[in-house]
Amino acid sequence: MSGWSHRHVLDLAAFSREDFAAVLELAHRFRSLPVTGARKLPALQGRLVASLFFEPSTRTRSSFELAAKRLSADVQSFSPSSSSLSKGESVLDTARTYVAMGADVLVVRHRSTGVPEQLASALDQAGDRTVVLNGGDGLHSHPSQGLLDLYTLARYFDPAHPLPEVLQGKRVAIVGDILHSRVARSNLWALTACGVDVVLCGPPSLVPAAFAQFVEEPPPGQALDPVPHRGRITVERTLEQALPGADAVMTLRLQKERMGQQLLTTLNRYHQDFGLTRDRLALCGADVPVLHPGPVNRGVEMASEVLDDSAICLVEEQVRNGVPIRMALLYLMAAADSSLVSINS
Ligand code: NCD
């Protein structure tokens, strides 16, 4: 844990394999603990976590808040419609208000790419010690989701040792609306860092061919990729090409709210071509697990027969794993700031 170097957590492009291992190892320890109120961990006692969700959320927001409470932090949540945002206050001034109230961590979700990063650099420039955790920004990044998906997969393949190395050499198909998905982008960084080959599948309007080069250049401002040998990314246009040989399949919600123009003919047609059904999944072989970050458009991205089959569908498992993963992130960020936190105290 001493190697943890991320003050803010804004995306996963700068995560090394050791960083992924640190989060998964800690999450696994947290997941094994009893969850009753009496057994809360005192690690973040006296700390304030503010959850600033400027865009709707069910899972991410609740699980960050629960994670903070399980570590004994005080949690302050914010609702855009009933806040002074509706009176014209800016996002930065809203964030500063929570910093003035003593927030140690801001968990930020915003519909525009880059907002958590802008807040983090404004806080750094002002000399504030508050850290920013990205809860999902525009099309760009959703680091905690990428981490919980990684943990869910590692746990599926090796429940006793769910660490990045168990994923080396696996093949994961990601199907659907990659273009608008921050979850897909975070998964591309996380999975390839752990040696997973990723096959992206969807129509050209939702999966541009350029995604095959997604991880080849580090993002602006990052001199080097911290991972030496990444998995490969390929793009396929049909499930018949993408699914054979896959060890797991992830499908993504059609992000209709982010589609500026009509990118699909009809939802029925999309389901016919890219919806996951039992028959389709047979192309991968038996018992291949299916993931979806939620919320699911039932009957569009996958048929109910898949969504409701707990033997292969890991959607609820992903939600369950979200809490210990977010506990691990909060813990690591707080620990980097102080030597006072202890998992055993
Ligand atoms: C995702 C998100 O908000 O990016 N959901 C989530 O956080 N679990 C995916 C989505 O909205 O489709």
Number of helices: 11
Bound molecules: N-carbamoyl-L-aspartate
Kindly state the percentage of residues in helix: 25-40%
Q: Count the beta strands.
A: 9
| Major sheet attributes | 5 strands, parallel
**Given the helix and strand composition, which structural class is it?**
alpha/beta
Written as H for each helix and E for each strand, in order along the chain, the element string is: HEHEHEHEHEHEEHEHHEHH
Number of domains: 2
CATH class of the largest domain: Alpha Beta
Strand order of the largest sheet: 7-6-5-8-9
Q: What's the N-to-C terminus distance?
A: 17 Å
Report the CATH superfamily of the largest domain. Aspartate/ornithine carbamoyltransferase
Radius of gyration: 20 Å
Mean pLDDT: 92
CATH architecture of the largest domain: 3-Layer(aba) Sandwich
CATH topology of the largest domain: Rossmann fold
Strand and helix layout:
Layout: H1 17-31, E1 48-53, H2 59-70, E2 74-78, H3 91-100, E3 105-110, H4 115-125, E4 131-137, H5 143-157, E5 171-175, H6 182-193, E6 197-201, E7 233-236, H7 239-242, E8 248-251, H8 267-274, H9 278-281, E9 290-291, H10 304-307, H11 315-337
Parallel strand pairs: 1-2, 1-3, 3-4, 5-6, 5-8, 6-7, 8-9
Bound molecules: N-carbamoyl-L-aspartate.
